[in-house]
Structure formats: structure tokens, C-alpha cells
Amino acid sequence: MRVEVRDLVLRYEDTFAVDGLSLSLAENKIYGLLGRNGSGKSSLLSVLAAFRRPTAGEVLIDGAPVFENAAVTRRISLIRDVGETVDVGTVEDVLFFAEWLRPHWDAAFAATLLEQFSLTRKMSVKTMSKGQRSALGVIVGLAGRAPLTMFDESHLGMDVPSRAAFHDVLLADYMAHPRTIIMASHLIDEVSPLFEEVVIIDHGQVVVHEEAETLLSRGIAVTGATAPVDAFTAGMTVLGSRELGPTKSCMVYGELDEARRREAAAAGLQLGPIAMQDLFVHLTGGSR
Amino acid sequence: MRFPTRLLAAHLAFGALLWAGYVVVIALFTVAVAIIGKVTGSIWELAAQLPRIYVLFFGVSLVREYLPMYVAHGQTRRRFAEHAAATIAVFAPCMAALMAVGYLIENGYHALAGWPQGLERPHLFESTGQAGLVFSEYLIEFLAWATAGALIGAGFYRWRGGGLLLTLPAGIALVLVAAGATGSELRMPFVAKLLAFRVDLPDSLPVTYAVGLGVFLAGLALTWPIIRDVPLRNR
């Protein structure tokens, strides 16, 4: 599903959670939605899913307004760690209602995922661990097969193997059933390999929206002897550096043209990629 | 509108299970009373207060648990309101029928044991064998209690404590008008006894039903403006 957001404002009393945000997302891609605490990620997603009415601005999904529009909302799924879809009785009850209310529900897929995440239908949701509840939310989100599926920190509490399983299943199912997926997460390095495009928001506004590869190409690690590294990176935006004996590695922000790359090679410097998380920290203003 | 079969089925199944357990508990309690003292009338009549509270919380949980679930599953608030209203409209008579059956079961073991089956307070019915009138009284009461629960649940979900303060008086009013319509006396000491507040309506079954329907519709009408654009809570 295509997502079009124009001049969106969402205000909680005196606080602007989203402040004049505009965004356009093409269909059938996996998007990473990144932002610091309080940046407006969850607020944006809650408006996209019609969990909230926007204060001002326009949200169109496939060209149609979303709030209280059943034709649109029935094709949208937002799974949050709050657990709206799982807070009823047992796992069986959760699946019972999901199957009834979700038009694209795949019961067989849900059963497979239950097994994969070691959940049973008789488990009481209230007595589950945080990780198990998150896994159940993830199952509801994946088996719902909504054309616009969003996960907002849905993996909170899941252990590393469970998160890895979630990412593998998500990718495999996306390949088999392409749809628009938006993932908001603070575990940037863990989820960034899934992203085709990245949207970074800060203070309720879009800071960056571009392809993940393009974004990653803006950050470069320059490694070599300390003096040549310092000379090469002089005047560049240095995001951070590490030294080990005579070797230094500097993370810089900005693109290098062919001439600069040849210059680096001539100085015996190695150029390599840096983690998306380091770029994210820089693009959202560094340490506050 | 697709009939809310699953919403209804989930609550009816749970309600029927609770009722079955409650019938057994009350029967055992009656036997205990007979052993240590004397059974002077219907225990089921006295026990009816708990089912009212259960129906009230059924209304609360409809909004507290199922509204967020509906919206999170891509349903509109309007669709939820339609389904919730239909669910209350079917759930209340089913529970009222179970209450009437409860009296009939009690009539049976009271007759077998030779215990009296008198009533302690005014009702729409004069004897516990008048199943139709028993059903009517509890139907109208349960419609009011469930709708009051939905109203109070909506107020609390939207505005927390402030919403509770705002909707509680309206919820109590719905219950009192329904009680007045059935000619029964509510066991609500702060309202009914201390404030000496009673609603007495003409003794006529059509009027009783009309008032019951009015209370139900008024409760829904008061609840809708609260939930029509309610944001889903973050916590």
C-alpha cells in the first residue's frame, strides 16, 4: 500500500509529537523508521494505523483517508508492545479474534509460527513473559498478512534467538507475499539489514528519507596509520574515532569522489562501511 | 453489518460457565444455611447482586479490552459500536434467561426440601415461578447494567479518573431508572437509602419494556460520542 503523509501535525496538549511532517512511501518495500525517544515515531505510526486522529494535515493510504475508513483500515496492521491484539484470555482467544477480524489471516502460518516461537494455544496471555507476549504480537502481525504491516518496537523482551527468528520469518514471508512493511526499532544494527529504505525522524519531522544503501554510503570508516588518517580526514565531519597502537580508524560523514578515494589508497588508507547506528546518532544530533 | 458472533460467543460461553458454577455454589450455600439455621426464602434473589456486577464489568470490558483490539485489527470504532450494541442486546436476554432458570432450579430443591420460597423485596414478579416476568425484570436490569458498564468503561478509557467521575452519575441514573421501571428496589445504600432516591413508574409491562429499551438506547447514545474518535492509549 502507498502511504502519503502531508503536513501532519499531532499534538498532545502543549507538546507537538509530530510537527508538519510530510512523507511519501511506495508500496511493497520494507522501511525502517528510526528516531530517538520522543522523536514522534510511535505517534506517526499510530496515525497511519488510525489509532489516533491527527491534529492537522492529511494521511492517505492508497489515495484514501485512513481515519475511520474501514475499506483502508482493514488492510492495515500495527503491532505495538502495548499489546492491543493479544490482551484477551489465552493464545487460542487471541487467534480466535484475529482470524475473525483480519481479512487476510493465514491460520496455518500462525500455527507454524506458534511452534517456532514455542507458544501453545492454552497459554494465558496474562501469565506470559514479556518476550512471549511480544512473540505472540509478532505472530498476529505476520499471520495477518495486512498489505500495510507495521511493527513498533514489537520485539521488546524477545531474546536474541527469537529476534533473529522473527527477522528471518519476516523476510521470507515478505519475499513470498510482498507488502509494505514499516519497522520502528532502537536495535538499529540488528534490523537495518532488512531495510530497503530508511526514514529518520527527529523532533516530529523527517530528517532523512532515502534508500538504505545510499544512506550507508554517506558514512565511511578511514583506517590506517594515525598521521595519514588525521591528514586525510582534516576538514571532514568526523563521527568518531578509535585508536589501537599506531593504527587509527575514523568514521566520517560525507561522500568521497573517485579522486579522494585514489588519494586515500595512495596514502595506504583503507576505506570501509560504517554501521547505520553511527550515522543515525550523527543525523539526530549526537549525544544530548 | 456482520453479526458479532465471536464477540458474543466468547462472552456467552464464559457467562454460562460462571452461571453453572454459581448455581452450584448457591445450592451448597442454601444447604449450609439450612444446617446451621433456617432457610426463610429465596437465596437466589439475594444472590442476584453478583450477576449484576458481572454484567456491569462485562460492559466495562467490552470497551476496555475489545475496542482497542477491534481498532488494532483494522476495524473502525463505528463497527465496534455496532457489534458491542448487538452483543449487549443478545447477551442481556441470555443472562436474564439463565437467572430465570436459576429460580426454577431453586424452586425445585426448595420444594423437595420443604423450604419456603418467598421474596424479600419488591419485584416485577410476585412469585419465583413467574418465569416470564422474572426474565423481563432481569432483562431490563441487565441491559441497563451492561450499558452503564460500557459508558463508564468508555469514560475511564478516554479520560481516566476524570472520565469515571463524569460517567459514573449517568451510569447510576441508567441503573436506577431501569430498577424503577421494574418496580424493584436496588441495594445501593448510598443512593437508594441515604439519599432516599427512588424512581417509581406505572405498573405496566409495556411501559416497563419501553423504559428498558429507552435506558439501553440512552446509554448507547451517551457512550458513542466518547468512543467515536477515542485514541488508543499508549499504556
UniProtKB/TrEMBL annotation, chain A:
Question: Would I find Translocase among this entry's keywords?
Answer: no
The UniProt entry, under Gene3D superfamilies, shows: P-loop containing nucleotide triphosphate hydrolases
List, for all copies, the residue spans of the domain called ABC transporter: 3-228
Q: Name one GO molecular function term.
A: ATP binding
Keywords noted in UniProt: ATP-binding, Nucleotide-binding
| InterPro entries documented for this protein | AAA+_ATPase, ABC_transporter-like_ATP-bd, ABC_transporter-like_CS, P-loop_NTPase
Q: Where are the transmembrane segments?
A: none
Judging by the UniProt lineage, the source's domain of life is: Bacteria
> ATP-binding: is it a keyword of this entry?
yes
List, alphabetically, the PROSITE patterns matched.
Answer: ABC_TRANSPORTER_1, ABC_TRANSPORTER_2
Recorded protein name is ABC transporter
Source species of the chain: Acrocarpospora phusangensis
Automatic annotation (TrEMBL), chain B:
Which of UniProt's keywords are assigned here? Membrane, Transmembrane, Transmembrane helix
Q: Where are the transmembrane segments?
A: 12-37, 43-63, 84-105, 138-157, 164-184, 204-227
UniProt-recorded name of the protein: Uncharacterized protein
Annotated source species: Acrocarpospora phusangensis
Q: What is the lineage of its organism?
A: Bacteria, Bacillati, Actinomycetota, Actinomycetes, Streptosporangiales
